[in-house]
Design a protein that fits this description.
Elements (H helix, E strand, L loop, with lengths): L3 H12 L4 E12 L9 E17 L4 E6 L4 E6 L12 H13 L7 E7 L9 H16 L6 H16 L6 H8 L4 E6 L4 E6 L5 E11 L2 H20 L14 H7 L7 H23 L3 H17 L6 H12 L4 E5 L4 E9 L3 H16 L4 E5 L6 E3 L5
Parallel strand pairs: 3-5
Antiparallel strand pairs: 1-2, 1-12, 2-5, 2-6, 3-4, 6-7, 8-10, 8-11, 9-10
The structure holds alpha-D-galactopyranose (GLA).
């Protein structure tokens, strides 16, 4: 958790005024990977790492932003045309501001200071945490209000247009609307979310970061999206009513898969089966069937590794180590090609799990993993001074 007093102090020293504070969490996806942009189902939870934006409004339309993590100050003017995709951290904040204004939300200038403990490049959605916390700050400081779904959509559009990643809605959605003690079963077509209780008295959600990020991740992400769209076109011949892979059942897929060339066939098989696994996982969690949930997580990993081909050696090594240690469930999480795996581990086995994963991963890859244990946290909100 970010030290709110230190952030507030730093803000006061820099800008000489008293800020309001807004926060949004990172996330880990328990299951439902690469399904969101196929109108499908995902089951992420917000983690207890967060980005906090301290801010106060200005009389003009200038937005000044200071990053405590990078010790860097940048600014832009809402009345001057902005530049897109510069590849700098300001793109996320400026992108959100411009998308909000494009959607008719009139902003005021603001002084902002940002501090985050969501690790970068770990597959834990540091970008969504930044977009959503900054969006909430900018709207609130302009005297407006925004609901969670709208905030998530603004963050996603900023990412598409100003950052250049054609992401789905999962990360921003759960950053905006996460619920303490729950994962969210999100229907990425209707944007409806059902909270699924996550009882962590006996098991812990353990995240192991490979500490690698392969360059492939963003280019291959867009290739996978295109392969799914191609699959939909081909499947529309026998199934004209489908709009996305979400509309194809596992049974329909097996009946028509011969129409699809490789690798499109395997890509579509992953998405179709992953949607089914995600719905089954939500039922398993609701029923307290952790073993059932764990089996689905392992199956999801195999499907991402073999059919969707977005895993990498380091992720596979971590999942194998976790399986050998008897983790209830383990799988890569997020976009893939590096980043983290997520595990369900019995509380009684936690210490041994952490030390053995660290040792065995180092032995296999000559790298050290970073291990986080997280409860399911709440989504974005203003932090009141009485709360810290
Ligand atoms: C990234 C994207 C999400 C989602 C995942 C894969 O995190 O931002 O929208 O597509 O990859 O499940």
């Amino acid at each position: 958790m970010i030290n709110r007093d230190a952030l507030r102090r730093s803000f006061r020293e820099r800008y000489g005024s008293e800020p309001r504070l807004f926060r949004a969490p990172g996330r880990v996806n328990l299951i439902g990977e690469h399904t969101d942009y196929n109108d499908g189902f995902v089951l992420p939870m917000a983690i207890d790492r967060e980005t906090v934006v301290a801010g106060s409004s200005r009389a003009d339309r200038k937005v000044r932003v200071y990053s405590l993590n990078l010790d860097e100050a940048l600014e832009f003017d809402l009345d001057q045309p902005g530049e897109k995709r510069r590849g700098i951290w300001l793109d996320y904040i400026e992108g959100v501001a411009r998308v909000l204004e494009c959607r008719g939300v009139m902003l005021r200038g603001a002084d902002l200071a940002v501090s985050s403990d969501v690790p970068l490049g770990a597959g834990l959605s540091s970008s969504a945490a930044l977009e959503v916390s900054a969006g909430l700050a900018l709207v609130s400081l302009a005297g407006g209000e925004v609901d969670g779904v709208a905030l998530a959509l603004v963050g996603q559009q900023a990412e598409h247009v100003y950052v250049g990643t054609m992401c789905g809605i999962m990360d921003q959605f759960v950053a905006a609307l996460g619920r303490e003690g729950h994962a969210l079963l999100i229907d990425c077509r209707t944007l409806e979310a059902t909270p699924v209780p996550l009882d962590t008295s006996r098991v812990a959600v353990v995240i192991c970061d490979t500490n690698v990020k392969h360059e492939l991740s963003s280019s291959e992400y867009n290739v996978r999206r295109a392969e799914c769209e191609r699959g939909v076109k081909l499947l529309q011949v026998p199934l004209p009513e489908i709009r996305a892979l979400r509309d194809v059942s596992v049974e329909e897929f097996s009946r028509h898969e011969a129409l699809l060339p490789e690798p499109i066939k395997r890509r579509c098989r992953h998405v179709v089966t992953e949607n089914e696994r995600t719905l089954a996982a939500a039922r398993a969690l609701n029923d307290g069937d952790l073993d059932g949930m764990g089996r689905l997580m392992y199956a999801s990993h195999r499907s991402l590794r073999d059919d969707y081909e977005v895993s990498c050696r380091e992720l596979d090594v971590l999942v194998e180590i976790a399986a050998d240690l008897g983790a209830i469930g383990a799988r890569m999480t997020g976009g893939g090609f590096g980043g983290s795996i997520v595990n369900l581990v019995g509380r009684d086995a936690l210490d041994k799990f952490q030390s053995t994963v660290a040792r065995e991963y180092k032995r296999a890859t000559n790298r050290s993993p970073t291990i986080y244990i997280s409860e399911a946290g709440a989504g974005a909100k203003e932090v009141m001074s009485t709360e810290y």
